[in-house]
Amino acid sequence: MTEDLSPAERYAAARKRAAEQATALGSFREMYDFGLDPFQIEACQALEAGKGVLVAAPTGSGKTIVGEFAVHLALQQGKKCFYTTPIKALSNQKYGDLVKRYGAEKVGLLTGDNSVNADAPVVVMTTEVLRNMLYAGSQALLGLGYVVMDEVHYLSDRFRGAVWEEVIIHLQESVTLVSLSATVSNAEEFGDWLDTVRGDTEVIVSEHRPVPLFQHVLAGRRMYDLFEEGEGQRKAVNPDLTRMARMEASRTYNPRERRKGKMVREADRERERRQRSRIWTPGRPEVIERLDSEGLLPAITFIFSRAACEAAVQQCLYAGLRLNDDASRARVREIVEERTAAIPDEDLHVLGYYEWLEGLERGIAAHHAGMLPTFKEVVEELFVRGLVKAVFATETLALGINMPARSVVLEKLVKWNGEQHADITPGEYTQLTGRAGRRGIDVEGHAVVLWQRGFSPEHLAGLAGTRTYPLRSSFKPSYNMAVNLVEQFGRHRSRELLETSFAQFQADKSVVGISRQVQRNEEGLEGYKASMTCHLGDFEEYARLRRELKDRETELAKQGAAQRRAAAAAALEKLKPGDVIHVPAGKFAGLALVLDPGIPAGRSNGHRGFEQHDGPRPLVLTAERQVKRLASIDFPVPVEALERMRIPKSFNARSPQSRRDLASALRTKAGHIVPDRHRKDRAAAADDRQIARLRTELRAHPCHGCDEREDHARWAERYYRLRRDTAQLERRIEGRTNTIARTFDRIVRLLTEMDYLRGDEVTEHGKRLARLYGELDLLASECLRDGVWEGLSPAELAACVSALVFEARVGDDALAPKLPSGKAKAALGEMVRIWGRLDALEEEFKISQTEGVGQREPDLGFAWAAHQWASGKGLDEVLGEADMPAGDFVRWCKQVIDVLGQIAVAAPGASGEGSGSAVAKNARKAIDGLRRGVVAYSSVG
Asked: The pTM is what?
C-alpha cells in the first residue's frame, strides 16, 4: 500500500506514526501483541487528554484495557492508581494480572481478607475499602491520580450499590475517574451525571461484540438456529421453531381424552409419536455430549439452583461422561492437590472433596456461592486452562470473575427472584450469554436455550434482540454515612453532597447542577471572606454595618420616591379640562393644555376587560400642536394649573386645523408664564436616627481607618452578593424533589435525639458509629454503648456479632434457631430488645426499611455455628449441626470476622486498658478463633 503513496504522503504518514509512538498510548500499545479496538483507543486518548471516561461495552470486549492504561499513565506520571472491583475474587484475579505485567513491588492488594504491599503505587482493592479510606481521611490517598472502577454498574445493587456513589462523590476533583461498565441502555444519562459531579467525562459506548454471538435452541436431538440467516438488523425467527411451538400448543393426542373413552385415530397417534420423537427437553449429560460432538465446549450451563448444579454434576458422572484424557486428568489432580494443600485432611471428607475431584478429573464441575471459596477458585483456574470443559453454575458467575466459554447454555428462562418465579429480563439474558465466545480463541460464541414445555421462540427472540439494561441508582443514606459526612463536612454541606447523588440526578436532573453551583458558590464565599480580612479588626462586622446603612438609605430613598409618586398622582387627579400645565419631564415636556384628566388610579372596565392603572393619564394638547395621552412617568413631581382656558365645543383632536388654532391660542394665553421650579424636600435620611447611629458606629469601628478599606469593601460587596445568590439557589433546591436530603434530615434528627450528633458536632458515640459499617451499624453501636457484650467470652461475642450480619435463606416460618446458652443467649435477647427500641424510634422519625433505610431485625440463625467454630469445634460437627453448605459457612464467618475487626477498633477503651477494652480484646480473640481451617485459606498473600 505504501508504494501507492506519493513521497509527501509517505512522509506525512511517517510523521504521524512517530507522533503516536511519542505518546503514552503509543508506548502502552507496544506492551500488547494485539491491536486495540477503536473504542479502546478513543477511551485511552481521552484519558491521556486529562478527561475522565465511562466505557460501556459487552462482556469480554476488553474494556479492562482502558483501566490498565490508567495504571500505565499513573506509573508514567509518578502518581498512584487505585483499581477497585466489586468482589474479592475479581480483586485477586486483577492483582495477579497486574503483578505479571508490572512486578510485585509496584502492585498491592487490599481486601477484607488480604493486605499485600498496601503502599505500592498501584493498589487493587474492593470498592468498600476505598470508601472507608475516604471517610477516614487515609494518608494513602495522597498522590492519588487515577481510580478505576471496574463493573461500575454494580451501583444498581440494592445492598451495596450506594458504596460506588459514595466513592464517586467524595473523591478529590483532581483524581481522574475511569468507569468500566457492562452495556447499559442509559449510559449517556450516567455519563451526564459523572460529567456533573466529576467534571469533563467522555462517554464511550460500544455495542460491538469482538466475538459474534449465535443463538440456538436445543430440542430433542437437533439444535436449531433461533434466527433465520439473512442480512439486516431485524432478523426473523426460525419458522421451524415457530411451527414446532404451534404444533405443541395444539397437540391432538391426549392420553386423558383416551381414558375418557374418546376415540382417537391411529393417524393422530402416529403423528404425535413422530412429533414427540423430535421435541423433548434433553437431559444434562445429553446436552454436554451434544455440545462436545458439535465442538462447542467448553460450556457454562446456567441453572438457577445450587442443588440443581450439584445434581447436574452427579448426573453426568453416573452417565459415564468423560471429557478429559489421561494426561489432562493427571494435570487436574496435580493442580487440585497443590491448591488444597492448606485444607486439613480431616476436613476434606466433610467438604465432599473426593466426589468433587472425580468430577474435575472428568472435566465437569459445579460453581455456586455455596461452594468453599478454595473449590470455586480451583474450578475457575481449571476452566480457564481448558482442563474443565463443562461447568454448571448459578447466575452469580455472570457477575463475577473473567471466566469466558465457547458456549453458554440456559436450561430455563425463569428463575426464583426471592419472592416468586419470574421471567429473566433482557438485561439478565445479555449478562448471562455475554460469557459465550473467548476473544483470541473462538471465532464465534454460542448461546443455547433448552426447549421446555410452553416454549415461545418469539419471547426468546425478544430477550436476545433487546439491549435494555438500565442503570438504576440504589443510593440511600445510612446512619454510618450520616455521621461520617457530618464529621467531615457539617450538616449543611453534607446535605448538598447527597443532592449530587445519581439517585437524586435521576429523580431531578436539574437539582444536581444547582447543588454543584451552591458548592462552588460556598467555596467562592470562603475566598471572598479571606480577601476582605483586615488586620485592624473584624471587617465582616464593619461590612455588615455598611450593608445595614446602605439598606436603610435605599429603603428611605424608596419611601421618598413612593411619596413623590403619590403626590404627583394626587396632583394629576385634581386637574380639569382647560387647565394649562407645564409637563415637567418626558418627550413632551413643556406647555400643554389638559383636554381630558384621564382615568383615575385603580381598575377600569375597558375594551380589554379590567385594566390596571398606576395613576391618571391626562390627554393634552402641546404647544407644538400634538395631542398625546401622557403617563405618570412624565410627572416625577406634582404639577399645578398655571392658567385656565376655554376649549371650544367645536374642537376636534383629529383635525389639524383645530389643533393648530387651539395651540396658537395656548401660546398666546400662557406662553409668557415661567413655571415655578420644584423645590426638593429635605432628605428623610438627614433626620433618620437609625442612619445617624449606623454612621457613628462606622466611624468608631477600627476598620474605618484602614488604608485598604475600600478594597476590603469591594470584596465584602461581592461576598454579600454571592451569598444572596446562593440563598436563592438553595430555595430552588428546597422547592424541588429532594427525597435523599429529606431522608438524611430524618436520620440526622434521630441521631441528634440519641446524642450521636449535636448540630455539626459528632459526639463520642457518633465517632464510634462512624467506625461501624454494615446493615445494622446503629444496633452494633448501641450494643457497645449499653455494654451488652461486656463479660462475654470470645466465642460468645462471635455468636452475638453473627446476628448483625447473617440473613437466613429460609422463610419466616422456619423453626427457632438453636442458641448457645448462658451469657450469649441473654446478650442475644438484649440485642433483640434494643432493636425493638430502635424500630420504634425509626417509626417515630418516619425512617422506613421499605426505602432501604433503617435496621432490620437481627437474625440469630448463625449464632450457634459461629459459637461452635470459635470454640474450636471440628468442621464436620459444625456443618452437620448448622445444616449449611461449606461455602455459605465460610462466607458468613468472614463477614463476622469483618465486623469483629470493626468492633475491635470502635469499642470504648479499645486503645486503652479501661473496662471497655475487654470487648476489643475479646473481639480480636474471636477473630483468631474463627480464622482457622477452611476459613483461614486465602488464595493471595
From this structure: 0.67
